[in-house]
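Think of the structure tokens as a kind of shorthand, similar to the way a musician reads notation: each symbol stands for something richer, in this case the local conformation of the backbone. In the example below we present two proteins back to back. Begin with the first one, reading the sequence and then the tokens, and try to describe in your own words what changes along the chain.
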Amino acid sequence: MSHTTHRFARYADVRAALADPALVPELPEADDGPAGASVAWLRASVARFSSGEPHRRRRAPVEAELARLEPAALREAVIAGAGGDVRTRVVRTLAEALGMPGPAEVAEAVLVVAGAYFGGGDATADEAVARLVAHLTRDPADEAAPETVANRIGLLVQACDATAALVAAAADSGDVPQARVLRENPPVRTMRRVAAGATHVADREIAEGGVVLLDLAAAGFAHPVPLTFGAPPRVCPGRAHALALADGLRGRPSTPFARLHQQAAPLLLPNAWDHASAAALAAQGFQAIGTTSLGVAAATGLPDGVAATAAATVALARSLGQGSFLFTVDAEGGFSDDVEEVAELARTLHEAGAAGINLEDGRPDGTLAPVELHAAKIAAVKAAVPALFVNARTDTHWLGRQEGETSTRLALYEQAGADGVFVPGLSDPADIAELTAGLVTPLNLLYAPTGPSLAELAALGVRRVSLGSLLYRRALAAAVDTATGIRDGRPPAGTDALSYAEVQRLAVR
């Protein structure tokens, strides 16, 4: 029985189709052969070609496998790996990281399977599937083993194809930010869905069994916001890993600070306001320190957020730069709307030793800077100081303004070259999940004592969590409480004070 094929190429239509639970991946024909013996069996057993409960069950082991791997480590491994074409290096690196025996043999077989994975099949590919299943089965007595192995193979097949396509697209784009490469030349250009039941999408009635062809390339090129998949939206569990592998294969430089955003756990960034507070936090093992613009401003008797603390910020950066720890600087909106002046500030901070800069689009009057202006600042900074990690902050949620623009602003900041994006004030798990599903760069959030825990933020895909001015405000509160307690006859409560000698040691650069 033939069914009507519907083609969608407009962004809104494609996004609506991807979010419609009635539109499911085109399922492969049932395989009557023995388990583990053919490409047909593989296609019938993987998450990629399933939906509903089978998809969730099959996706789970893939997510668990990838959760063990730090994208930064994959990036370094693929750089250090032996030669070969892109697809071979990707599969071999990933197989070795996952602890698979004989990574070279695995890669050879996976490349054969990849040629038949998305349709068709032949005896050679079937034999490669059988070899992989025999090679990767850990416990033959485990009834779930065949399906688990199938999804490990599927992970490798998709990694080699998608990452190779990403590398090829990026190679033709020079130094264009990866977010723009993905929007303009996505590795997956089209996708097919089948209606599991009658549904209505973009003013079209789609009958049960109707085929929907989604032109992801056309839709993405025409809109700044990346497409998300599923209802609710979900992120590809291997996207960060694929991006890291592609970066390594492209030979793009990566700094130690940037790699802290590619770990299994989010980077917890405490924010200091002077040399002693930064040194004290670094001494406790924090991997990097941020500065807090409120703390710097208040400590010098100046207002925050009105471009009054440029000199104090640079002075603090020069002081911190004499230490041995990584630090990033909160620079408000760059203390200017002249993009060249912002770029010169960034160059000065980097020369002082800063590994990163935080640039916000909120303005002193409570409005938001034009998105084009903020994107221009980001692009100017990256052009002037490519090694400086730019964390592009939008205050849509912080100021309670234009929250519906959050994803659009972040997408444009990514495409301007931002290395990470920051949305202070965002704490709703559903909103966080929707954002991370569409982002390419790491998402930074501000920790809120009443919001999600660090573990919950990690599960939502957040890669960096800042403490902002919390430590400074608590320090002030503790100082006041100690002084008033002594005055009022109450013994000081809370943490014991550092000794004079300990503070002296922190003060010596």
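Once you have a description of the first chain, move to the second and do the same.
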Amino acid sequence: MATKKVTLRPGDTLYALAGSHGTTVKTLQRLNELGTSTLIYAGDTLRLPLSTGPVDRAKPAPPEDPAPSSGAKTRKQAVGKSAAQAAVTFARSQVGKPYVWGGTGSRGYDCSGLVMRAWEAAGVKLPRTTWSQVHAGKATTRAQLVPGDLVITNRGGHVQLYIGDGEVIHAPGSGRSVTVAPLTDTSQVVSYRHVTP
């Protein structure tokens, strides 16, 4: 398969690149010898298939509708809000379940497994690990947090789901359960990520 190399930018994920280049995550993993990993880093080079006609990354893609109506924008926001609410509702229903290292449900959860499953319940596929989730969606700020946003802490090793009113739901660690907690102090946060469907 003919390929083209691109340099990764901050915020790039295999999922986003696969979608924008008309290919699959599995194809990108195979072309780049990643195995089952979705972990990629800004500054690295990634091979993309030429047959899909990769987008010129120097130019933004043209909008589908050059003058979207305010109604269309409102509908898109409503869909995003509805999906985020579904993720939060799922996470709330898991409160009290035990922390299980590597857990993604039924028996319990680890932090990234909980967040992945919460967004999956909303129809959005996130990477499995915190190290990959730190690149999910787009960067946001503490002041702009909305329910459903990811809060990455512990030097990138822990993820929490923001639920509004200064609170998060997370799987805090061994011997503990999924719980609601106050939003982590700014000094401990590595990144805030806004996820949309």
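Compare your description with these statements about the second chain. The helical segments are 14-20, 25-31, 70-93, 111-121, 130-133.
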